[in-house]
Amino acid sequence: MKSKNDNRKNNKMFKDNETIDYLIIGNSAAGLAAAESIRELDKSGEIMILTGENYLNYSKPMITYFLSGTVNLDMIHFKDDKFYKDNRLDVRLNTRVKSIDTDKMFLITDDGNRYEFRKLLIASGGRPIVPKIKAIGTKSSGFIDGTNYDKTEGIFTLTNLEDAVRVKNYIEKNGIKNISILGGGLIGLKAAEAFLEKGIDVNIIELADRILAATFDREASGIIEKKLKSTGSNIYMNNTIEEIHIGSGKITGYKLKDGEKMECRLLVIAVGVNPDTGFISSGSLDMARGIIVDDHMRTSAKNIYAAGDVVEGPDMISGGKRNIAIWPLAVRQGTAAGLNMAGGNKKYGGGFFMNSVELLGIPSISMGITNVAEEKEGFEVLKYLNTNQDMYRKVIIKNNRIIGVILVNNIERAGIYSGLIRNEIDISSVKENISREDFGIIHLPADYKKHLVVGEGIEV
Amino acid sequence: MRERHGDCKMKKIYIQEEYCIGCRLCEIYCQVKHSKSKKIIKAFKEEMIDILPRVLVEEIGYNSFAIQCRHCSDAPCVEACISGAMQKNKNTGVVTCDEDKCVGCWSCIMVCPYGVIRRNLSGKKIASKCDLCIDEEIPVCVQNCPNEALKFMDKDAKEKNPVGTKTGRKNEK
Amino acid sequence: MALELKQSEFEIERDKNKCISCEVCVRQCSNDVHEYDSDQDTLYSDNSKCVGCRRCETLCPTGALKIRNREDQFKTNYNWTSSHLSNIYRQADSGGVLLTGMGSDRAHTVYWDHILFNAAQVTNPSIDPLREPMEIRTFIGRKPERLDFEINRNKDSKESLKDTNIKLKTKVPPQLDLSTPIMFSAMSYGSVSLNVCKSLAAAASEFGTYYNTGEGGLHKDLYGYAKNTIVQVASGRYGVDVDYLNKGAAVEIKIGQGAKPGIGGHLPGEKVTGDISNTRMIPEGTDAISPAPHHDIYSIEDLAQLIYALKEATNWLKPVGVKVSAVHNIAPIASGIVRAGADFVTIDGLRGGTGAAPQIIRDNVGIPIELAIASVDERLREEGIRYRSSIIAAGSIRSSADVIKAIALGADAVYIGTAALVAIGCHLCQKCYTGKCNWGIATQDPYLTKRLNPEIGTRKLLNLLRGWSLEIKEMLGGAGINAIESLKSNREHLRGINLNDRELAVLGIKHAGEAW
């Protein structure tokens, strides 16, 4: 990717005082959606994007597709060069932000540059969590953690393309035939699938008593577990890595909590992601786990907005604020933020968790709240399970509104459910149909059906 | 904001539920249109294993309607697409899935409130949806609906000629 | 169970090379003729259930289906025809009256096809209706015997007409103003679907002519077309109240119908549901029986009472007419009706359609409309009362030529029923009485009524009216006539062919080849 540093001299967009109209931290879903929206309203203002990454554009959720070989580096982008050119976006690669002065409205980057801005969007995404693990055979601290894990060869996280490229190269260079994955969540399992497709065996170590515990219920997890085991993979549940064994700067194995010792030449740590807020000094912005934003994606500081995986935004289901790190919401938040930054008035409208993942040929979709103690006060759970075909459908209802859905194997028309959740439709009149396999628009409450088929649903 | 893609002038398919007769000719002609040979008998007899209709007829008793992608202006599928395959063309307003780019993550299926995107598993896994037959003057489902339960028109025409309302009242003064 | 001896009337040919098992035929047939066998991926058809409506054949996307009439149902016999044999077998099974629908399909003489229209050559010029004015507007209603004018001449300029103020003194009775001499005949909501009514009403309204409610009352969705509605009052008086009468542009008392003269009607209780019960103003589930006669009309004098009662109820603002079947004494009957005060007389001929009638009546009772019109027009003229009523001809008007011939024989306008239904999809399978009309016309099954989109129905009817009107203008122009009024009863423009002297005499026309 070519360096953009020479652009500045010739770039007529910049005014003399060097204050950037719109400065965006982050070059992924939220950041680019914002940039595009800003450009819709403001044809002339300069837009600069800062990113710590080395690639002009790639889709983060697709890095496991890159690992499996489904896409190559040429196809992993979700926006092409033309997008950047058409929207006149000045992208600074390898530019990590060090600190922000929210009052004086400037920020400092790792390379010491200072950028003044009129409007700032923080869309810095997430950082992988690396738990502190005892390490045997290391020269230094005796522990592996987020600051030093990458010093040991064979230990990786997997949240950006650089990680994926390194993992891929490492596998090829060292002829890896077996990989251990710490964490049985979505990233871990997506990685597992990619490795399995490449003919590499995987061991999955999960702290909970089942995989995908955060997004699935027991039945759904069970279906995936069964399938995983049928591929010869090992899943270690209720377990974690107690110590990592290192020799000559490389991982050689680890010991599990239950005492079992494993050989390991490549370990992927996939226990989760936190909002990437390291560059924000405490007290400068209202924060919880992520940056707190209102329905217009404004932070607590004037002219500073935030969007995407870094924020805690309105959650439609709980009614509170929550960090929901998923792509569609990042785009929606980015769009709202961008329009508001450029003088528009756009409400984000809230969102809820949802995820689509196909593991080992089993497509699955989960939305909203998926784990409730069954029939607990106020919750109603409708289920459809076809054990022969591993077909599973579960709908969780509260106050006659759907608040959660799990679909495994048959995901046809899943979006109808997300529409029902988003629009808070009273489904009491159609309950008997709601979890059926061929659930469709025709089963919906008459008004909403009309709205979708002939009504405003079609309006632009 | 709404008209940013010129959607007002964009011709869309409107559904007249009360006149859908459930014959499914729309599905049949959609399959033919997206077959290799585009010849109905050949397509069905030799090529059909691979072809999903991109319009969907839903039916319970005498209630039925055909529904296909609404080509929304704030299309949730475009928003959710992680690969950039799902795009709304800014000139035509048509939402299409670039099958080369699609990786089959099914995020679009997850968010489409109409449920009109389907998994095509015949080759590389891809999302299959209505492309509004962009090379035809009128989409084939509309062309071949024997009862005009599907109409292809722009918003102005739609307002002049509201669908979904009972005909026969317009002269009432 | 004894074997049914009736044979299938139709044979369904399915070309396996063309059939793509799309099942459109299965979904479209309300008689369950076609069936898909998923084990064999094959479609089977049951000939015995087929009514020959050709819905499947029409919608089959590959042309794989052919419905053929079975000519060889029985051994050929010119006396004991297939139809006689089938009917006997059917009756031997059922013991009942055989019902049928639509007009008679028997080979009665169709006089229209034995009448030829004239054209102008040399002695009078023909007219090009595309370049010269051509009037096909006509009025239905009682015409004044004579017209009185009030003339106020300006005293100063005795010569100039410009300064003369002429005012019509005669009060002209109410008239229906038809932009073309074609109206849609009475088809009740109940016998046909509401979508058919909407199509007829909307087309009549847009073209400037009239449709007739039949005896089923007026559905509220049709109120908007009041100005183009003729409301009917029949022996059952269903849906009749003063609002109904005043919703219409004219009132028609129905005495008889060409397909079933002397016979009443019977809509079974199970068909009297929701909307139909409301529109007919009878409780849901009750049989709607139209008695054979009006029980308050046993003479011309009784008819006069009803006519005047209806005129009174409508403030003398609307023409009130009477519809009768064409029967043997139609001329004196019509004369009586005119004298009873009817503003128009509708005469429905032998071949007129119906939703349900005993087949034996339909095919054997009444006389052809051509003869009836000619004799009625003749009689009214002789009696000097032709101006008092308009004559509307009905009962199988199949083309614009039939229209123009009817007018030349003496009609003011025609009603079309079957032709209108054919325009919107009817294939004359004659199974209206089953309520399973695959074309969504003669049915109330919501699965089937959807099949007629009134928007399409309206468009097709408008096209039919437009096409026929253009043809009428062409024929008029060709004959050197520039107004339809000039053709009325102008039998010199007609010639008979292959007709005997009696027939020519009744029709009041010369044989082809005979000149002045």
Question: What does it look like?
Answer:
- The complex is a heterotrimer of chains A (460), B (173) and C (516).
- Chain A is an alpha/beta fold.
- Chain A folds into 3 domains: 7-60 and 77-126 and 276-341, FAD/NAD(P)-binding domain; 130-271, FAD/NAD(P)-binding domain (3-Layer(bba) Sandwich); 361-458, Enolase-like, domain 1 (2-Layer Sandwich).
- In chain A, 22% of the residues lie in helices and 28% in strands.
- In chain A, strand 12 (201-205), helix 7 and strand 13 (234-236) form a beta-alpha-beta unit.
- In chain A, helix 2 (29-41) packs parallel to helix 8 (327-341).
- Helix content of chain B is 21%, strand content 17%.
- Chain B has helices at 25-33, 40-47, 76-80, 107-111, 140-143, 155-160, and strands spanning 12-15, 56-60, 63-67, 86-88, 95-97, 118-120, 126-128, 150-153.
- Chain B has a two-stranded antiparallel sheet with strand order 1-8. In chain B, strands 2-3 form a two-stranded antiparallel ribbon. In chain B, strands 4-5 form a two-stranded antiparallel sheet.
- Chain C has 516 residues and is α/β, with parallel strands linked by helices.
- Chain C folds into 2 domains: 10-96, Alpha-Beta Plaits, CATH 3.30.70; 176-511, Aldolase class I (TIM Barrel).
- Chain C is built from 15 helices and 23 strands.
- An 8-stranded parallel barrel of chain C has the order 11-12-13-14-17-18-20-21, surrounded by 5 helices.
- The mean pLDDT of chain C is 95.
- The chains are: A alpha/beta (460), B alpha+beta (173), C alpha/beta (516).
- Chain B binds chain C through residues 16, 18-25, 28-29, 40-41, 44-45, 61-62, 144, 146-149, 166-173, and chain C through 17-18, 20-24, 27-28, 59, 61-62, 198, 201-202, 205, 221-225, 440, 445-447, 450-456, 458.
